[in-house]
Design goal:
A hairpin with a 5-residue loop joins strand 2 and strand 3. The strands form 2 sheets. Strands 1-2-3 form a 3-stranded antiparallel beta sheet, with no helix packed on it. It has a two-stranded antiparallel ribbon with strand order 4-5. The chain is an all-beta fold. The protein contains no helices and 5 strands. It has one domain. It is about 0% helix and about 45% strand.
């Protein structure tokens, strides 16, 4: 699955118009004992698309959260995460 996103010059207070492509891939991997696990890959591609600037700074990041337990149904592309209670009333 690939997402495409455009940001215009100074839209986010950064110089240059850019086109961002983020590609997600999921591969099945067999673990010992016949357990099937999913391996997720992420690729980034960022390009300047106009001539407002010759270059700009880009730092693509991914803030992922690992699930303690999950089930992936590859035929339905459904991911069912486990709910993890957070005992932090100041953030409720």
């Amino acid at each position: 699955m690939t997402y495409d996103w455009q940001v215009k010059h100074l839209e986010d207070k950064f110089p240059g118009s850019i086109n961002v492509f983020v590609k997600y891939t999921v591969e099945e991997e067999e673990k010992p004992g016949g357990v099937i696990a999913g391996k997720v890959g992420i690729e980034y591609d960022v390009r300047l698309i106009d001539d407002e600037v010759e270059e700009t700074a880009i730092a693509m990041t991914n803030h992922r959260y690992s699930l303690l337990e999950y089930r992936i149904d590859f035929s339905a592309t459904l991911i069912s995460p486990t709910k993890l209670p957070l005992r932090a009333p100041q953030y409720s």
